[in-house]
């Protein structure tokens, strides 16, 4: 799935978070599916190497739109696709065609360049009516050592489950206790989809910074209230994170990692270190450079990149 970054996201340079702070997400639209973007946000570009969190939460859950995102490019990142409902076929320039359903994980590593499409049209691609899609689309910034490397794709058919007090967590990325995901990432990271009743405690690594994203109910992280559609930013130095919900059962994403330590620049679907790298990728995509972005097995229309605001018109 795609999550085009807008030029305004340049205002999201990392600022220190001395205590738990809540940031409201922004409502936007990707490929006809309404989303809440909770990262990047004001004063916060990355959590560990996590650099982008979109929640696809259709306004009309009875008739959500199927996902129809045509071929588009990425550089410098990994995309993590995690569905709550529906299904989609991932197609990419490595030749991959992979159906994904809730409970499964797609991890696409762009390295120097990859292109992909996400197609949730039930009849044409999946052969059954799976309804519309809801889920999370997450990006992980690649570190300097691997961001120019080869692209790859990994599908995990099921994820390991870790026990929590009063609940459990699917371990999408990294590890929790002795439970480890098979997903291959290049920096110390964790990504959990946790459900619990009333009150739980998430063990955390003091060297990691974290974000807690409520998916269905308002939560209390320590004493800070965070609503669905928002994110609680948690600074380094915690060894556990108490989370409460006011009765009943709640679901949340817990994302963490060692601070990336490299300032990144994000524009549209590109994660880079400077404008020149973004301009090069933009030219390669708009110029149909098949060495960098090979063709994608998809009959959805290709998505053109907008002109970066720093590139003079006429180029
Ligand atoms: Mn994408």
Number of self-contained structural domains: 1
- Overall spatial form: globular
**Portion of residues in helices?**
under 10%
Order of helices and strands: EEEEEEEEEEHEEEEEEEEEEEEEEH
CATH topology description: Jelly Rolls
| Overall mean confidence score, pLDDT | 91
What's the count of strands? 24
- Bound compounds: manganese (II) ion
Strand content: over 45%
Counting DSSP H or I runs of 4 or more residues, the number of helices is 2
The secondary-structure class comes to mainly beta
Radius of gyration: 19 Å
Task: Give the end-to-end Cα distance, rounded to a whole number of Å.
Answer: 28 Å
CATH homologous superfamily heading: Jelly Rolls
Q: What's the CATH architecture name?
A: Sandwich
Keywords:
seven-stranded antiparallel β-sheet; 315 residues; mainly beta; binds manganese (II) ion; Jelly Rolls; 2 helices; nine-stranded antiparallel β-sheet
Topology summary:
Blueprint: E1 21-24, E2 26-30, E3 33-39, E4 50-56, E5 68-74, E6 77-85, E7 88-92, E8 97-100, E9 105-109, E10 114-119, H1 122-126, E11 134-141, E12 152-156, E13 161-164, E14 167-173, E15 175-176, E16 179-180, E17 189-203, E18 209-214, E19 219-221, E20 224-226, E21 230-234, E22 240-257, E23 265-267, E24 270-272, H2 275-286
Antiparallel strand pairs: 1-21, 2-3, 3-4, 4-11, 5-10, 6-9, 6-11, 7-8, 7-10, 9-12, 13-14, 14-17, 15-16, 17-22, 18-21, 18-22, 19-20, 19-22, 23-24
The structure holds manganese (II) ion.
